[in-house]
Specification:
alpha+beta, 3-stranded antiparallel beta sheet
């Protein structure tokens, strides 16, 4: 369910006034995560690393109320649920986009992730959810990158995360992740809080 709200009646009133007309309203934070436990759980439970990353992102975002509002065109839209997008290599050798609705139930999210990404890969048709606030992701796991700054198209204001190949040390595995967000949606403190929550969710995986 989506609902247009009056920005003046929300905590984003000042940000809406300041940033909606800004030529470049996007902010990017870059953080290095400890993904040691995430990889361990992936191997132990035979779960895809990317799926676990997407679930942890959704889990952390669901605890930050700013993720449930998004500037769309010249309006502020309130959502009652979120999804995490993943890029899928399709059967034609190209890429397609797949939105996976978030649920606290990891087993359910995993089942949805596997089914939806398989369907998208086979049909080469994007699975887009327009009635849910979507967090975009792009995993460039073949490459070593330290960070990425996304593009502002002026059309899509959704938060977006990019990461590359994780790095292994003797007893620790790390992953650098960039997080781009629209300043109208949240401030830097909200974004940093989300990234801290994301690290906690990775550490809490069982």
């Amino acid at each position: 369910m989506i609902q247009e709200v009056n920005p003046a009646e929300t905590t984003r009133a000042y940000a809406f006034e300041m940033w909606m007309k800004a030529p470049m309203p996007m902010v990017t934070l870059i953080k290095t995560f400890d993904v040691t436990r995430l990889r361990r759980v992936s191997r132990k439970r035979q779960l895809k690393v990317n799926m676990l990353m997407c679930w942890c992102i959704g889990k952390a975002a669901s605890q930050v109320k700013e993720f449930y509002m998004l500037p769309v065109d010249d309006k502020l839209i309130k959502y009652d649920s979120i999804a995490v997008n993943t890029i899928v290599a399709n059967s034609q050798g190209e890429i397609s986009s797949c939105d996976v609705p978030f649920t606290d139930d990891l087993a359910k999210f995993n089942a949805d992730y596997l089914w939806l990404t398989r369907q998208v890969a086979e049909t080469c048709e994007n699975h887009d959810m327009t009635d849910i606030m979507v967090i975009g992701t792009s995993a460039l796991v073949q490459y070593d990158i330290d960070g990425a700054v996304g593009m502002y198209s002026g059309i899509f204001n959704n938060p977006f995360m990019i990461w590359g190949r994780y790095r292994r040390d003797w007893f620790r595995t790390t992953l650098s992740v960039s997080f781009q967000f629209h300043h109208t949606q949240m401030d830097g403190a909200h974004a940093a809080h989300f990234l801290n929550l994301l690290q906690k969710e990775m550490h809490s995986l069982r």
